[in-house]
Amino acid sequence: MSTVEIRNLHKYFGKLEVLKGIDFKVASGQVVCVIGPSGSGKSTLLRCVNLLEQPTSGQVFVDGIELTHPDVDIDAARRRLGMVFQQFNLFPHLTVLRNVTIAQERVLKRNRSEAERVARENLERVGLAEKADSYPAQLSGGQQQRVAIARALAMSPSLMLFDEPTSALDPELVGDVLKVMRTLAQEGMTMLVVTHEMGFAREVADRVVFMDGGVIVEDGPPKQVIGDPRHERTRAFLSRVLNPDQVS
Amino acid sequence: MSEPSSSPTLTAAPPGGLSPRRRQQLSRGVQYAILVVVIAVIALLADWREISKSFFNFTVAGEGMPALFTVALRNTVIYTLSGFVLGFALGLVLALMRQSSVAPYRWISAAYVEVFRGLPALLIFLMIGSGLPLAFPELTLPGDVYGKAALGLGLVSAAYMAETFRAGLQAVPKGQMEAARSLGMPYMRAMVSIVIPQAIRIVIPPLTNELVLLFKDSSLVLFLGVTAAQVELAKFGNDQASTFANPTPILVSGLTYLIITIPLGYVARRLEARKGAHR
Ligand SMILES: Nc1ncnc2c1ncn2[C@@H]1O[C@H](COP(=O)(O)OP(=O)(O)OP(=O)(O)O)[C@@H](O)[C@H]1O
Ligand SMILES: [Mg+2]
């Protein structure tokens, strides 16, 4: 069964059509990377999957449940989805540990000690067990992003959404975050990742989706989409991303 | 007041023939002269014997002790804090209503703020004193005057605090709400656990200023008609002044206000400065 299925998704912001009929699936355990130029609708697509944006039309299914159905309890449905943001969005007034426990307690109704056990496990997973009592402002960007990943993982999601998780990081901090994501992929987590990290996409993704102008232009294994793109738009984009210094 | 802002070195010899430095000295001399004249006139016009007898009468001041602190200041603090708590709660609710997706809530909140910011606080106290018993004959507020005072100060300050909270809520980045929602928290849960605590931190300095304003406005309680046990600083001073036919107690009351308001205002400015430094 697919973990995510999107059918004929359209999204308008006012008169601006940002998503123009998106269809795709992510099978359980798959890692799908979404690439494409700025403004092509990648973030909007991701945000439509967990309904941070309300799709204008079309359907979104997660684990066979239609999230776009009017009767669905969206708060319950979102528990199946972890989201990692470009800007981390840790809760600055809470310690790292509390960042990871608060939703477990308030949403999953786990008791404090159970929540802390799960939190410490997941902080261990991202290599930050010793930062449990720090505040987000005391961490580097890379550490903050790893805490954000642990926070999402602690909810035991069946799908993780990443929106350019390394774009706000200093170059030397990118590696640590990608390493955590790579491990996650190896452990079989289903992941939908918007990224500009072509190396990561080539190495980790089962599929790469190239978006441009609100449509999916190309969708296939990384060897094909990145290595041997069929569409001129994909080729143009990739040559810009892979050789940023070249004047085209 | 300050130095003339014009022409430093470039106009070495201006039309008047004075160098800029010389002109500066002259201007400062004139300012000192004005100050001395004003002080001299006031000193000559004032009746110093009468002033020291009337305003610095330690015998009369002593008569007010210890009730000044045990009754008047205590009541002032009680009125202020209970009004603040009520205003805080109501202000927060109004700020949340202002963001509601239910349009009438937004209208009610906006109308409340406009009305209560636009009216003199005194008028609201007069309405509570005489209007409230007529409109709601069955209603008895807890603590009688204490309840009415809290209501009056709460209604007035809620309008200001609502605006402060609104700004505070808007200052919390949108990503905070999104992160909380993406973890499965319902809207209200996310507000209470994530957004509101951050908004309150942001508005602590302006709320401290609001507390200072309320402390002074608590003097309006005198229009509710209070007994000797319910008296606050301003009325206490006034009553003592008429008892002894001497205004010293008013001055003493004033100093007592300042003991509270000046440090509190200082704290508010420090908090404000610290917040700025953290950015
Ligand atoms: N809340 C919004 N209101 C109006 N327009 C929006 C909103 N969010 C996004 N857009 C517009 O939708 C288009 C797609 O935006 P989106 O953020 O999905 O692009 P993206 O592919 O993620 O780009 P980037 O690589 O820069 O993050 C853009 O033209 C953007 O201006
Ligand atoms: Mg984006």
Spell out the key features of this protein.
heterodimer, A: 248 residues, 6-stranded mixed beta sheet, 25% strand, globular, B: mainly alpha, MetI-like fold, 76% helix, flat, binds adenosine-5'-triphosphate, binds magnesium ion
Write the layout of secondary structure elements.
The complex is a heterodimer of chains A (248) and B (279).
Chain A: E1 2-13, E2 16-27, E3 31-35, H1 42-49, E4 57-62, E5 65-66, H2 74-78, E6 81-84, H3 96-106, H4 112-125, H5 141-153, E7 159-163, H6 171-186, E8 191-194, H7 198-204, E9 207-212, E10 215-220, H8 222-225, H9 232-242
Chain B: H1 20-45, H2 48-55, H3 58-63, H4 67-98, H5 103-118, H6 121-135, H7 145-171, H8 174-182, H9 187-217, H10 233-244, H11 248-278
Helix pairs in contact in B: 4-5, 4-7, 4-9, 4-10, 5-7, 6-7, 7-9, 8-9, 9-11, 10-11
3D architecture notes:
The complex is a heterodimer of chains A (248) and B (279). The longest helix of chain A is centred in the last third of the chain and has 16 residues, at 171-186. Chain A has a 6-stranded mixed beta sheet with strand order 6-7-8-3-9-10, with helices on both faces. In chain A, strands 2-1-4-5 form a 4-stranded antiparallel beta sheet, covered by helices on one side. Chain A is globular and about 55 Å long. Chain A is of the alpha/beta class. In chain A, strand 9 (207-212) and strand 10 (215-220) form a beta hairpin. Chain A is built from 9 helices and 10 strands. The N and C termini of chain A lie far apart (43 Å). Chain A has helices spanning 42-49, 74-78, 96-106, 112-125, 141-153, 171-186, 198-204, 222-225, 232-242, and strands at 2-13, 16-27, 31-35, 57-62, 65-66, 81-84, 159-163, 191-194, 207-212, 215-220. The mean pLDDT of chain A is 94. Chain B has 279 residues and is mainly α. Chain B has one domain: Orthogonal Bundle (MetI-like fold), CATH 1.10.3720.10. Helix content of chain B is 76%, strand content 0%. Chain B has helices spanning 20-45, 48-55, 58-63, 67-98, 103-118, 121-135, 145-171, 174-182, 187-217, 233-244, 248-278. The longest helix of chain B has 32 residues, at 67-98. The two termini of chain B are 34 Å apart. The complex binds adenosine-5'-triphosphate (ATP) and magnesium ion (MG). Magnesium ion binds next to helix 1 of chain A.
